[in-house]
């Protein structure tokens, strides 16, 4: 049987390059890439995407929509790493660990939208808790996250790694208009009924994320505490290959979180920190914004689709 042909459209960006690197040398698939002179040629890109078995779109939102619209071959399957289709009901959301059925849905889907980096952590923490009724769907959620500068794309990488030396700031908060494009994605897939406040930031390190969600116990159902929140997450991700939930005794010994701790992996590490005296809890997620937050997740979804193809 001929090995499936995978076309990476946009393989020169930060996400595309890492996907290409992760797939390079694999014997169970064939990679289709376009010569540099043809990468921006709409006709050649349309020919390539219609000739492949699975296309991975590593493009800005509008070009991703155009690429998807150019598909006329009904056999072509797509993984879109942009944010163009993440709240589109016609696309399967590509977070396999989100629930017990999601991996099967991804494996069988024609159209898969890869999660955003920040939403991956927020949804992983909030989704199971909202579903279990431990966090009300209308809770006034605040999400704060600090990512490596690679999350800003090539322009941001060049600012820190360009020939003239680092030009980017040590730390920068952004999204001050509270209209970041990831917010609707978090709201929908975490099961929230009210828009969360999302506060993103970049630090002067290349990749990695620490994301936090603070909770006030007085606003949660009676009897909910840090232990119950931990137990819910632990049960939800039991057996998940790429999601770890820190044991309470381990979390109690933590004094800081390193955003780069899981760089180069497709892993996601969750933890629950509580202060019973003050009635407060902090949910945290650590992962690689270019791993589980982008290219690693895309390859994980690709593998699910390939496995279903036999």
Automatic annotation (TrEMBL):
Positions of the Semialdehyde dehydrogenase NAD-binding domain: 5-106
Keyword NADP: yes
Keyword Cytoplasm recorded: yes
Lineage: superkingdom: Bacteria
Name of the top EC class for this enzyme: oxidoreductase
Compartments it resides in: Cytoplasm
Entry keyword set: Amino-acid biosynthesis, Arginine biosynthesis, Cytoplasm, NADP, Oxidoreductase
InterPro entries: AGPR, AGPR_AS, AGPR_dimerisation_dom, AGPR_type-2, NAD(P)-bd_dom_sf, Semialdehyde_DH_NAD-bd
Pathway(s) the chain acts in: Amino-acid biosynthesis; L-arginine biosynthesis; N(2)-acetyl-L-ornithine from L-glutamate: step 3/4
Pfam families linked to this entry: Semialdhyde_dh, Semialdhyde_dhC_1
Enzyme nomenclature, EC number: 1.2.1.38
CDD domains attached to this UniProt entry: AGPR_2_C, AGPR_2_N
Active-site annotation: 117
GO molecular function, one term: N-acetyl-gamma-glutamyl-phosphate reductase activity
Biological role: Catalyzes the NADPH-dependent reduction of N-acetyl-5-glutamyl phosphate to yield N-acetyl-L-glutamate 5-semialdehyde.
Record family assignment: Belongs to the NAGSA dehydrogenase family. Type 2 subfamily.
Name of the protein in question: N-acetyl-gamma-glutamyl-phosphate reductase
């Amino acid at each position: 049987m001929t090995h499936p042909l995978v076309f990476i459209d946009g393989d020169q960006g930060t996400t595309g390059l890492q996907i290409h690197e992760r797939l390079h040398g694999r014997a169970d698939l064939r990679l289709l890439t376009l010569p540099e002179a043809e990468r921006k040629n709409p006709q050649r890109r349309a020919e390539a995407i219609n000739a492949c078995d699975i296309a991975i779109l590593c493009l800005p939102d509008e070009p991703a929509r155009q690429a998807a619209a150019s598909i006329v071959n009904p056999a072509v399957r797509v993984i879109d790493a942009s944010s163009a289709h993440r709240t589109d009901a016609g696309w399967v959301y590509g977070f396999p660990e989100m629930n017990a059925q999601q991996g099967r849905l991804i494996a069988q889907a024609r159209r898969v939208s890869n999660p955003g980096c920040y939403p991956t952590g927020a949804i992983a923490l909030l989704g199971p808790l909202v579903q279990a009724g431990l966090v009300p769907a209308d809770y006034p959620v605040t999400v704060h996250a600090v990512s490596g500068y690679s999350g800003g794309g090539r322009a941001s990488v060049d600012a820190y790694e360009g020939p003239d030396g680092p030009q980017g700031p040590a730390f920068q908060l952004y999204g001050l208009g509270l209209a970041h494009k990831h917010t609707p994605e978090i709201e929908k897939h975490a099961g929230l009924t009210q828009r969360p406040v999302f506060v993103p930031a970049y630090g002067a390190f290349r990749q990695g994320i620490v994301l936090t969600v603070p909770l006030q116990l007085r606003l949660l159902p009676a009897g909910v505490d840090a232990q119950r929140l931990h137990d819910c997450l632990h049960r939800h991700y039991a057996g998940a290959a790429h999601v770890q939930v820190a044991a309470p005794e381990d979390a109690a010994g933590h004094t800081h979180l390193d955003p780069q701790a899981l760089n180069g992996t497709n892993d996601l590490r969750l933890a629950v920190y509580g202060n019973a005296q003050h009635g407060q809890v902090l949910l945290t997620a650590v992962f690689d914004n270019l791993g589980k937050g982008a290219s690693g997740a895309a390859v994980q979804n690709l593998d699910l689709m390939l496995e279903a193809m036999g």
